[in-house]
Structures are given as structure tokens and as C-alpha cells.
Automatic annotation (TrEMBL):
SUPFAM superfamilies: (Trans)glycosidases. Its EC number is 3.2.1.89. It holds the Pfam family Glyco_hydro_53. Belongs to the glycosyl hydrolase 53 family. One of its GO terms (molecular function) is glucosidase activity. Keywords: Glycosidase, Hydrolase, Signal. This is Arabinogalactan endo-beta-1,4-galactanase. Gene3D superfamilies: Glycosidases (3.20.20.80). Residues 1-20 form the signal peptide. It is an enzyme of class 3 (hydrolase).
Length: 353
């Protein structure tokens, strides 16, 4: 009992002592669309208007996560839109994490629609996803902004390219084949052998869900552990009160020990102001405040730093500058790292190493 009490006394100190993480990133995919609507950003009140990617990098962000939809419209995150944003991120000094949704719109645990121009049969989709993925990697390489990391799907807990690749209705085999085709498409591209392939699922704190996915997705002759390089997880505090640091630590430790691969948390947010209607945040000791945003993010850094064998390598804040959508899909009022005028909050410092 005395040892347990001693551990409890030490726990706050452990999370105050922030550990360095190699990759500190932001997904600012909405930026160019926001700028088109007249939004601007400043690092200080009264300061000069500054490109948001430069503000992020100046505060220590070294990884830009850019989502790509299969749409051909810039307002819908087309490939050309992503390529242009990648040039800006690279010029600011950031490496690239490209997030392929394999859909004309949002892909997440509840939505994974086949692109309207794609076939719907499994054979046709295997060919399409291979070709599309190869071509995306080639496009980034051709313009001089090679991809560092690529997600072959976004939050694919129940598979991808529904209904054909939906795990809950079709079993694991179609999804396993599609992931194998996507991965080999990356490797077939120019410089593809050096691109790190990520598999991304939601709810990184949920060991049961994570283990269900990874106990089933690897099938002989289909998707194999050798087909990808690292794991990506989403970890939000406002969708389930069980999303605690301790649960995330347990899940990530188990995954690292089992597969000996690197891990990132590639989506997270925390509220800066206001309230979270009807929601109990998962870490109740962290306040809804600008300081709380930094505390939450640093807590994730510390979880990752404790993953065995140095396999916890990065964390990404999701859409820190999306003015006009400050709740970022949650019931919280404002999860941004800027205020409504586009001025940086002090929580922007979370990206420092």
C-alpha cells in the first residue's frame, strides 16, 4: 500500500516533466480554404499577418498532416489542393504526413464511402486503390515534396471502401486485401520504398477495439505486418470518458511489445474556452483552458515517451486554426490554438520539443 501511495504522489510530477518527442505536428488541411474566405493569422495581437504554417513551425511543429479526398474540387481537399498545401508546409520546414481518406468526403469510424468514380467490386477496388495510391505518392515526389509518412485510410476501425471492405459485414478479408493493395501501391511509386506507411484507427485508448482489429486484419497472402511501418491512433477526450492517459498507455505498450513498430497519435484536441455540453472530459484534472490544452498535449507526449523501445514517436493536433468551426466536430465550444481573430494562443507552445 505504501508503494502504491508513493506512486500516486509521483504521478503528477511525471506528467509535469514533459518528455521530448521526435514528431510534433498539426493537421491544418483546411487552411487554404479558410484563407480563400478571408481568414488571416497573427502570432501576436497587433502583429504582422503571417502564414499559419510558419507560425506553427516557429513554435516547434515539424510535421504537417494533410488530408486528401478523391474529390477533384479544392474546396473538398482534392489532390491538387493537397499538393499546393504541401509546398507551403515544406517551404516552412515541415515534413509531410499525407492522410488518404479513399473517399469523396470524410472517412471515419462511421463513414467510409467508396468514391463515386470508383468501381464497387473487390477486384476492381484492389486495382483502383493500388493505382490511386501509387499516383498520389508519385505526384508529391514529382513536385519536390516527397512524403515522409502516408496513411492508407483514415480511422478504419470497421474497414474501408464500404460496403465492400466493411469488416462488420464482410469479415476481415476484403479490408485486408485492400490494405495490401494500397501498401504495394506506395512501394511501386517513385521513392516509395522510403515512405513510411501508417495504419490509422480511432480510439487508441480502447485496447479491446484495437486488439480486435489487429488480431484479424493480417491474413495469409493479404495484408501482412511487413506491409506497413507504423501505427496511427486518434485520441480525443470528449467522445468517451474512458479515454484516459492510463488506458492509452496500456494499449500502446501492448501494441509496441507485440509488433515492435513505431506509433503516433495523429489526431487530438482539447478545449480552450467555453464548455463541453453534455460531456465529461476524460481527464477531469485537466482544466478547460488554454493552459489545459498544453497540459493535455504534453500528457500525450509523456505517454508516447514511455512506450517501450522508443516506439512512441509523434503526436499531431487536429485543425488548430479552423476559425468558424471551433468545436471541430465535438460538443466543446472551442478547441483551437488561435482566437476568433486568428491570433495565436499561448498553447501554441505545445509544439516545442
Amino acid at each position: 500500500m505504501l508503494r502504491f501511495l508513493h506512486f500516486l504522489l509521483l504521478l503528477p510530477a511525471l506528467f509535469l516533466q514533459v518528455q521530448a518527442i521526435t514528431w510534433r505536428g498539426a493537421d491544418f488541411s483546411s487552411l487554404a480554404n479558410l484563407e480563400s474566405s478571408g481568414r488571416t493569422y497573427r502570432d501576436t495581437s497587433g502583429g504582422a499577418v503571417t502564414p499559419f504554417e510558419k507560425i506553427l513551425h516557429n513554435h516547434g511543429a515539424n510535421l504537417a498532416r494533410i488530408r486528401i479526398w478523391t474529390s477533384t474540387s479544392s474546396s473538398q481537399y482534392s489532390l491538387n489542393y493537397g499538393l499546393a498545401l504541401a509546398k507551403r508546409a515544406a517551404a516552412a520546414g515541415m515534413s509531410l504526413l499525407v492522410d488518404l481518406h479513399y473517399s469523396d468526403t470524410w472517412a471515419d469510424p462511421g463513414h467510409q464511402s467508396i468514391p463515386s468514380a470508383w468501381p464497387t467490386d473487390l477486384s476492381g477496388l484492389n486495382t483502383e486503390i493500388w493505382t490511386y495510391t501509387r499516383d498520389v505518392v508519385n505526384a508529391f515526389a514529382s513536385q519536390g515534396t516527397p512524403i515522409q509518412f502516408i496513411q492508407i485510410g483514415n480511422e478504419i476501425n470497421d474497414g474501408l471502401l464500404w460496403p465492400t471492405g466493411r469488416i462488420s459485414t464482410q469479415g476481415f478479408s476484403p479490408a485486408s486485401q485492400l490494405l495490401h493493395s494500397a501498401a504495394t501501391g506506395v512501394r511501386a511509386a517513385t521513392g516509395g520504398s522510403s515512405v513510411k506507411i501508417m495504419v490509422h484507427i480511432a480510439n487508441g485508448w480502447d485496447s479491446s477495439g484495437v486488439n480486435f482489429f489487429y488480431n484479424g486484419i493480417f491474413l495469409a497472402g493479404q495484408f501482412a505486418t511487413s506491409d506497413f511501418d507504423l501505427f496511427g491512433f486518434s485520441f480525443y477526450p470528449f467522445y468517451n470518458s474512458a479515454a484516459k492517459y492510463s488506458a492509452l498507455q496500456s494499449t500502446l505498450t501492448g501494441i509496441a511489445n507485440k509488433f515492435n513498430k513505431d506509433i503516433m497519435v495523429v489526431e487530438t484536441d482539447w478545449p480552450a474556452t467555453g464548455s463541453c455540453s453534455g460531456v465529461t472530459l476524460s481527464e477531469t484534472s485537466v482544466p478547460i483552458s488554454v493552459a489545459g490544452q498544453t497540459t493535455w498535449f504534453n500528457g500525450i507526449k509523456n505517454v508516447l515517451s514511455a512506450v517501450p523501445n522508443g516506439h512512441g514517436i509523434g503526436v499531431v493536433y487536429w485543425e488548430p486554426g479552423w476559425i468558424g468551426n471551433a468545436g471541430l466536430g465535438s460538443s466543446c465550444s472551442d478547441n483551437l490554438l488561435v482566437d476568433g481573430s486568428g491570433v495565436s494562443r499561448s498553447s501554441m507552445s505545445m509544439f516545442s520539443s
